[in-house]
């Protein structure tokens, strides 16, 4: 309430001083088309809730609350990132990483790991990078991409490179066995899903027959991204929470490492691998313009 009263007083002062250009709601630049038609943000211009603007750094923001031209990067209560998806159409509450930022994060990526494939996969877990504050959403997106970048050498490798391991990932004790073959369940995709029981569980959750068709994870970009999102949002691994829970509950990036590969890397077991993940995360949060938060290591 206090912040709203201050905002109202500031609006009145700016208007009386002649420094604010108040635009009636009927003529405000609320955007429903491509991002290219969004107006450039201008300090001192009145923006009703729902208005989409292009900030000075080229990113888009939507007004979550009426405001007299507050800076979208500073006044995060009034503004939220507004992501262009699917051919440039802005999506409120969308994935907080633009295609240009994605390319910046992974300049040498394999074309299989397409931005379009990632966007197509997001519907499987709508809470991912879309829960909590704008800061939390950007941190989670950066954390996910930092880990998948580490697992795949910068989104270069689609399949596990050590072929000698391939035959190890069939647990014959499972009642469904390994119908695709003894050596069919090797690591694939952004988080290198492996083992027949993981393919079965991911496939059941996603409504895709990955037990019988594990190769889909290396031939369909959206399916590959979905398996990574399945693990991120539903699996605790060797940790005590899912990576999604770690980020939205403020437990920090270090807990995502623990949930993905903590038994091998955390508690001093492999500090170089942990540092690789942390360095990715710090770079990606920098690209997204958000602080990395605390508890980076495990």
From TrEMBL:
Keyword Signal: yes
Annotated S-S bridges: 170-178, 266-298
InterPro entries the record matches: Glyco_hydro_19, Glyco_hydro_19_cat, Lysozyme-like_dom_sf
SUPFAM superfamilies on file: Lysozyme-like
Active-site residues, as the UniProt record annotates them: 151 (proton donor)
UniProt entry tagged with the keyword Methyltransferase: no
Keywords for the protein's UniProt record, in alphabetical order: Disulfide bond, Plant defense, Signal
GO biological process: carbohydrate metabolic process; cell wall macromolecule catabolic process; chitin catabolic process; defense response to fungus
Protein's name in the database: Chitinase
Organism (species): Streptomyces morookaense
Lineage, highest ranks first: Bacteria, Bacillati, Actinomycetota, Actinomycetes, Kitasatosporales
């Amino acid at each position: 309430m206090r912040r709203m009263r201050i905002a109202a007083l500031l609006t009145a002062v700016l208007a009386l001083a002649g420094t604010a250009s108040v635009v009636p709601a009927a003529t405000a630049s609320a955007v429903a088309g491509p991002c290219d038609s969004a107006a450039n943000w201008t300090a001192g211009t009145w923006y009703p809730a729902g208005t989409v603007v292009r900030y000075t750094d080229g990113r888009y923001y939507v007004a979550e609350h009426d405001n007299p031209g507050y800076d979208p990067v500073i006044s995060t209560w009034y503004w939220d990132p507004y992501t262009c998806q699917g051919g440039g159409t802005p999506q409120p509450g969308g994935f907080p990483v633009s295609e240009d930022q994605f390319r910046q994060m992974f300049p040498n990526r394999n074309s299989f790991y397409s931005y379009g494939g990632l966007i197509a996969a997001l519907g499987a877990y709508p809470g991912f990078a879309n829960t909590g504050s704008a800061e939390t959403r950007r941190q989670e997106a950066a954390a996910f991409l930092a880990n998948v970048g580490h697992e795949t050498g910068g989104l270069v490798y689609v399949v596990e490179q050590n072929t000698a391991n391939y035959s190890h990932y069939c647990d014959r004790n499972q009642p469904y066995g390994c119908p695709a073959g003894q050596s069919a369940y090797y690591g694939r995709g952004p988080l290198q899903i492996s083992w027949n029981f993981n393919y079965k569980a991911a496939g059941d959750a996603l409504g895709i027959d990955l037990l019988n068709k594990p190769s889909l994870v290396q031939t369909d970009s959206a399916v590959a991204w979905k398996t990574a999102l399945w693990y991120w949002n539903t699996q605790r691994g060797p940790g005590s929470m899912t990576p999604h829970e770690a980020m939205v509950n403020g437990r920090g990036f270090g807990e995502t490492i623990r949930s993905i590969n903590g038994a091998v890397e955390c508690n001093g077991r492999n500090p170089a691998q942990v540092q690789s993940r942390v360095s990715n995360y710090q770079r990606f949060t920098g690209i997204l313009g958000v602080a990395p938060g605390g508890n980076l290591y495990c």
